């Protein structure tokens, strides 16, 4: 089988490229990535010479760049290519419109034209908006789209195009909405890798607002396993929510766990101005994918420990990133270099 992974040089994308080559050695994995700020070929050094792996430096927002890849024949497309950082969407929304909406629509068009057997969209639980902190409800596959920031709005728009292609053209498409991921190769602008790398550098960790916002954290390999299950057993036209088995946890509690695992003495938390429109809580009911035989394998403590260990071992990887472009973006968000 030929699997096209878009955004395969990013965090979750590069994890699934590794996962797929390890688990399906007979398949060909094609990685299409525009190598924007968070796409990083260092994530794929160990497999870049594999005869089962091919890389194309192309941008999904340019149909002319992606069509030649489809012409060679592709069985399955998994679309990870996206702008994903909420804070950035607040000051550069056009990047989100180009990659997340126009890019997805280009892929749908190419899938239709070249009769791809399955298109799978990696979406997010953020398309459902947020829940009140004390709300006991969880998002389900029936929850209506109700995005509350520009990143989420772009992902929700992409989903609407998919629904239109499903209805009008019967394109065999599935969607998954996963909660917050952690693990190797996550760009250190997201909360967990930012926290770990800041502490390793002796810097404080900026905690937005009260630090009481709640997220549901999952280890990236569990997300890869879920996608594998959806591609094999999921039904075209369906969406599947992917979440963890842990109690929901707020940002202060999560950071405290990270600090405990790292065991470096210091006063690491610094409360800073809140993110505008900061979503209060995400919680996901993953019963539907559970019925396909998936459940998360990694506990929260294991996920944190594995992630901390990876960043402690791979200092060259993140130092290269933090010394460059990252700084400029962070000056825009915080007004200083966190
Ligand atoms: O829920 C899935 C989504 O999770 C994905 O679709 C997004 O691509 C991904 O970025 C993530 O969104 P969040 O906004 O939840 O992730 P982030 O790591 O930016 O923030 C996690 C929490 O930590 C959130 O409540 C904001 C807070 N935070 C974040 C940063 C970067 C801080 O307190 N300080 C920070 O410096």
TrEMBL record:
Its EC number is 4.2.1.46. Residues 4-305 form the NAD(P)-binding domain. It comes from the Bacteria. Keywords: Lyase, NAD. GO terms for molecular function: dTDP-glucose 4,6-dehydratase activity. It catalyses: dTDP-alpha-D-glucose = dTDP-4-dehydro-6-deoxy-alpha-D-glucose + H2O. The keyword Nucleotide-binding does not apply. GO terms for biological process: nucleotide-sugar metabolic process. Gene3D superfamilies: NAD(P)-binding Rossmann-like Domain, UDP-galactose 4-epimerase, domain 1. Belongs to the NAD(P)-dependent epimerase/dehydratase family. dTDP-glucose dehydratase subfamily. This is dTDP-glucose 4,6-dehydratase.
């Amino acid at each position: 089988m030929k699997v096209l992974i878009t955004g395969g040089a990013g965090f979750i994308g590069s994890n699934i490229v590794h996962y797929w080559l390890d688990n399906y050695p007979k398949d060909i994995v094609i990685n299409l990535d525009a190598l924007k700020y968070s796409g990083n070929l260092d994530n794929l050094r160990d497999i870049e010479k594999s005869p089962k792996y091919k890389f194309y430096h192309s941008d999904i927002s340019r149909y002319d760049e992606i069509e030649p890849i489809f012409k060679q024949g592709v069985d399955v497309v998994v679309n990870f290519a996206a702008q994903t950082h909420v804070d950035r969407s607040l000051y550069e929304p056009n990047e989100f419109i180009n990659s997340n909406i126009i890019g997805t629509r280009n892929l749908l068009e190419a899938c239709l034209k070249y009769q791809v057997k399955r298109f799978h969209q990696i979406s997010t639980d953020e398309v459902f908006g947020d829940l009140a902190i004390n709300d006991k409800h969880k998002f389900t596959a029936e929850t209506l789209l109700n995005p509350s920031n520009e990143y989420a709005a772009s992902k929700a728009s992409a989903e609407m195009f998919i629904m239109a292609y499903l209805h009008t053209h019967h394109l065999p498409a599935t969607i998954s909405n996963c909660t917050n991921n952690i693990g190797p190769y996550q760009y250190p602008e997201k909360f967990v890798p930012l926290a770990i790398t800041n502490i390793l550098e002796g810097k404080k960790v900026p905690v937005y607002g009260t630090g009481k916002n709640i997220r549901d954290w999952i280890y990236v390999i569990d997300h890869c396993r879920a996608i594998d299950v959806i591609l094999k057993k999921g039904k075209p036209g369906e969406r599947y929510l992917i979440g963890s088995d842990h109690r929901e946890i707020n940002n202060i509690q999560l950071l405290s766990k990270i600090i405990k695992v790292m065991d470096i003495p210091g006063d690491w938390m610094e409360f800073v101005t809140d993110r505008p429109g900061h979503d209060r809580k995400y919680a996901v009911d993953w019963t539907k994918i559970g019925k396909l035989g998936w459940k998360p394998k990694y506990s929260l403590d294991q996920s944190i420990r594995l992630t901390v260990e990876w960043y402690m071992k791979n200092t060259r990887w993140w130092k290269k990133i933090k010394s460059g472009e990252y700084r400029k973006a962070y000056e825009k968000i915080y007004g200083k270099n966190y």
